[in-house]
Amino acid sequence: MKFKLTHTARSVACAATFGIAGLAHANTATTDSDAAQKSSQPNSATLIAKGTSGAMTPFLVDAEGRTLYTLATDEKKAACDDACMKHWDPVVSESRPLGKDILPGLLKAEKNDKGVSQVSYGGLPLYRFDGDKKPGDMNGQGFADVGVMVSVLGTAEHPQEAGEKVEATPELMAAGAKVFASTCAACHGAEGQGAFGTKLEGFDRLANGPALLSTIIHGLNSMPALGGQFNDEQVAAVATYVRNSWGNKFGGVSVEQAKAAR
């Protein structure tokens, strides 16, 4: 099943309430010269790659494995002001950046408002966070309500841990197997191997339960909306089944979560 990745509630709230002026007010210690010097420093890490951590949705990292972010105040353009620059270092490249295990067609290097050739992915300007000291650190996620990690699909989001503490009970699995066989197997394959639909075997994006529920209920691209056909019990059951079959081990989905996704 294909499904859509979404911004977190934090990111959405930030985009609506935390403007550039507010960000500048939050930290006024940085001078114009400090920001200009930092943004103009050359950066040799023109390789953008896929990072993974447990059951999180795969996200972007640089050549050293450091997590990359976009800013909730950025809407398809680099708008990080001088105070912002104290914590956020734009990823720059004088030539076309390279991609590894991502979608290289989403990569660009364009001049930002300060004349620096900044790398973007899917239109989202990319940054490093100065609080991340080593590969695997994700301290910029949610920092000052503006830092947002970027998925390999080019969406700003909060990667979610799998399972959400809902058990994949035998009853849920059996009910889900029945729904899957009658409705989903024709496209996704009886063993999740993929056919007309996405291969679900070993599909790490199933870790994002809310996004999976949204796609089952509301549809996405060639995936039809099944919310009118399935009740909440059936949605929870089939979501639990695909999240815990064919090598996937992402935990269960409750009826309450399915109902909340409508």
Structural notes for this entry:
The chain has 262 residues and is α+β, with helices and mostly antiparallel strands. The chain has 2 domains: 9-149, no CATH class; 170-260, Cytochrome c-like domain (Cytochrome Bc1 Complex, Chain D, domain 2), CATH 1.10.760. The chain is built from 7 helices and 10 strands. The strands form 4 sheets. A 3-stranded mixed beta sheet has the order 2-1-5, with no helix packed on it. A 3-stranded antiparallel beta sheet has the order 6-7-8, with no helix packed on it. A two-stranded antiparallel ribbon has the order 3-10. Strand 6 (107-111) and strand 7 form a beta hairpin. Helix 4 crosses helix 6 and helix 5 (209-218) crosses helix 6. The longest helix has 19 residues, at 170-188. The radius of gyration is 20 Å and the shape is elongated.
As a percent range, the share of helical residues equals: 25-40%
**Nearest-integer average pLDDT:** 77
What spatial order of strands do you see in the largest sheet? Answer: 2-1-5
Query: Could you spell the SSE succession in H and E letters?
Result: HHHEEEEEEEEEEHHHH
Q: Low-confidence runs (pLDDT<50, min 5 residues)?
A: 1-43, 159-164
Terminal residue distance? 17 Å
Pfam family, one: Lipoprotein_15
Protein name: Cytochrome c domain-containing protein
GO molecular function: electron transfer activity; heme binding; iron ion binding
Domain Cytochrome c: 171-246
